[in-house]
Each structure stands twice: as structure tokens, then as C-alpha cells.
Amino acid sequence: MEKTHIDPSTPISQLTVEQYLHLFGSISKPKRYEYGLNGIAKIFGCSKDTAQRIKKSGVIDDAIYQNKNIIVIDVEAALELFRENPRK
User: Fold this and answer.
1) From CA 29, how far away is CA 21, in angstroms rounded?
2) What's the pLDDT tens digit per position in 42-57?
3) Which InterPro entries does the UniProt record give (predicted)?
């Protein structure tokens, strides 16, 4: 969908479906987070052992914030990074 300019004074009832979808799609979603290896396992629907292998692989490093033994994972970023790095 290409960028659509919407005059801020336009009533919602006068928007086209394309303009409405553009406007609706531009609303930012709150970030979702998971925690620890159990969180990684939950995101990918795998065992804790597989979650450890995913973490060790480095594929989702940019989605992980770690301070000592506390691990926080940005769910959307992890999924996107995993999608971009197919298995070798």
C-alpha cells in the first residue's frame, strides 16, 4: 500500500477504505516481551533445550537484552530476526 496523505480535518466517515486501513495500520502496537529460556521456548513453540540452541546460535541476539542471568526478549524482533535467517 502506498503512502496516503489524509487531511487531519477529514471526518472518519469520509475516509476511503484504503485511507482507513492506512490510518489503522499506522497505530503502533505495544511491544511484547518474554523472559528467560522459557520465554524463547514459548515464542518458537519448542523445548527449553532447543530454545537454548536458538539463543546460542546468535540469530536473535539483537532481540535479547541480558543482564547477568536475567533475559528479556522482544517477541516481534525475535520472530523477524528468525524469519530473516533461514537454517543453513
Assistant:
1) 15
2) 999 999 999 999 999 9
3) DUF3853
How many Å apart are CA 56 and CA 48, to the nearest integer?
12
Q: How far apart are CA 23 and CA 3, in angstroms?
A: 10
> What does pTM read for this prediction?
0.67
Query: What is the domain partition of the chain in residue ranges?
Result: 1-28, 33-84
Strands (E), 6-74: 33-35, 64-67, 70-74
CA distance 32 to 42: 13
Residue keyed to cell 518474554: 34
Distance, in Å, from the CA atom of 52 to the CA atom of 69, rounded to the nearest integer, reads: 13
Query: Which candidate, 30, 25, 22, 29, places its Cα nearest to that of 6?
Result: 22
